[in-house]
UniProtKB/TrEMBL annotation:
Gene Ontology molecular function: kinase activity
Name under which the protein is recorded: Diacylglycerol kinase family lipid kinase
InterPro entries for this protein: ATP-NAD_kinase_N, Diacylglycerol/lipid_kinase, Diacylglycerol_kinase_cat_dom, Lipid_Phosphate_FormReg, NAD/diacylglycerol_kinase_sf, YegS/DAGK_C
Classification via Gene3D superfamilies: 2.60.200.40, Probable inorganic polyphosphate/atp-NAD kinase, domain 1
Species: Yanshouia hominis
Boundaries of every DAGKc domain copy: 1-131
Cofactor: Mg(2+)
The keyword Zinc belongs to this UniProt entry's keyword annotation: no
Family to which this protein belongs: Belongs to the diacylglycerol/lipid kinase family.
UniProt-listed NCBIfam families: YegS/Rv2252/BmrU family lipid kinase
Keywords recorded for this protein, A-Z: ATP-binding, Kinase, Lipid biosynthesis, Lipid metabolism, Nucleotide-binding, Phospholipid biosynthesis, Phospholipid metabolism, Transferase
PROSITE patterns: DAGK
Length: 314
């Protein structure tokens, strides 16, 4: 029998899938897999499990939210590329942003079946300071102070940022981060209130990129930087631009790059895939093209996703 490792975070989301685990294992067994199930015991556990055991399995399935998936991918990235098995994902978190972007079914049984009927789809992974990684977004900005103080960690970075901006009445409520940002095409300096390096077609439902703007396996990230507005009128223009995706070029920078280096004047808190990424003055971000192969049945759900407006241009 082929060997499959299922990594399950029993505390992810509202834990609805707990009672479904037996049926999920049954699907794997019927597909001819000798399935090992390991439940994570705390933060960092999923990364360690995958790092140490990935090479022993033909497939890995992650059951959890974006945080668990981020850890599983970190574990895979710590293995040599030839020892990384393809990855299936059964979304069981609260937001599951990446699953929405990829078009993975929200129903755990359908998602599980699609892992076996689907194909391997390469996906770019970001390295963050060489010791962390992200699959769809690394971001800093106004949202970060609030996010880690709330029991529900911030998931929806750009959506939350826009929400905070909408409520801003005085510029003094905004925190500008002075920094130099180097990308493949040059260097940008300034005071920024938000920045993100992304590999997704949708950020928090607010920004939707089309195929020309964002291909998850093109070896490039999308870099978005929002400058500190000079006036409240400026701020309204920025918000209107973010909503309509017609960026005011003076205020919002949007470009494609494989590398980004951030040199900040102060410690700046980052969020990686919606989880705490720590505070840093220097960050190096690098694209690892097609570093992880996702297993899912893209054709089964693309039409429905496109109809829902989630998946643009796949
Ligand atoms: N046994 C455990 N007890 C408590 N926390 C755990 C356990 N196992 C893993 N964790 C941690 O739980 C955190 C949250 O998990 P995850 O992001 O998967 O779920 P979620 O927050 O509900 O989903 P989403 O991020 O999609 O909204 C992760 O950082 C993970 O490290």
């Amino acid at each position: 029998m082929k060997r499959l490792l299922m990594v399950v975070n029993p505390h992810a989301g509202k834990q609805h899938f707990k009672g479904k685990l037996l049926d999920l294992i049954d699907i794997c067994t019927r597909q001819g897999y000798d399935t090992t199930v390991l439940t994570t015991q705390g933060r960092g556990d999923a990364a360690g499990i995958v790092r140490e055991r990935a090479a022993l399995y033909e497939k890995i399935i992650c059951c959890g939210g974006d945080g668990t998936l981020n850890e599983v991918i970190s574990g895979l990235m710590a293995c040599p590329p030839q020892e990384r098995p393809p990855l299936g994902y059964i979304p069981a978190g609260t937001t599951n942003d990446l699953a929405a972007t990829l078009g993975i079914d929200r129903d755990p049984f359908a998602a599980c079946r699609d892992i076996f009927s689907g194909t391997e789809i390469p996906y770019d992974i970001g390295s963050f300071n060489e010791n962390r990684c992200f699959s769809y977004i690394a971001a800093f900005g106004a949202f970060t102070e609030v996010s880690y103080q709330t029991p529900q960690p911030l998931k929806n970075t750009l959506g939350h940022f826009a929400y905070l901006l909408e409520g801003t009445r005085r510029l003094s409520e905004l925190h500008p981060y002075r920094m130099q940002v180097r990308h493949d095409g040059g260097t940008i300096e300034g005071d920024f209130i938000f920045g993100a390096v992304c590999n997704t077609r949708s950020i928090g439902g607010l920004l939707r990129f089309d195929r020309r703007d964002a291909d998850p396996a093109d070896g490039l990230f999308e870099l978005l930087l929002v400058r500190m507005p000079r006036s409240i009128a400026d701020l309204s223009r920025i918000l209107a631009g973010l909503h309509s995706r017609r960026f005011d070029e003076d205020a919002v920078i949007f470009l494609h790059t494989a590398h980004a280096a951030f040199l900040c004047r102060e410690d700046t808190a980052w969020s990686l895939d919606g989880e705490d990424g720590g505070a840093h003055r220097r960050c190096q971000i690098r694209n690892n093209p097609g570093a992880v192969r996702f297993l899912y049945d893209f054709t089964a759900h693309a039409a429905a996703q496109r109809q829902a407006g989630i998946l643009n241009g796949f």
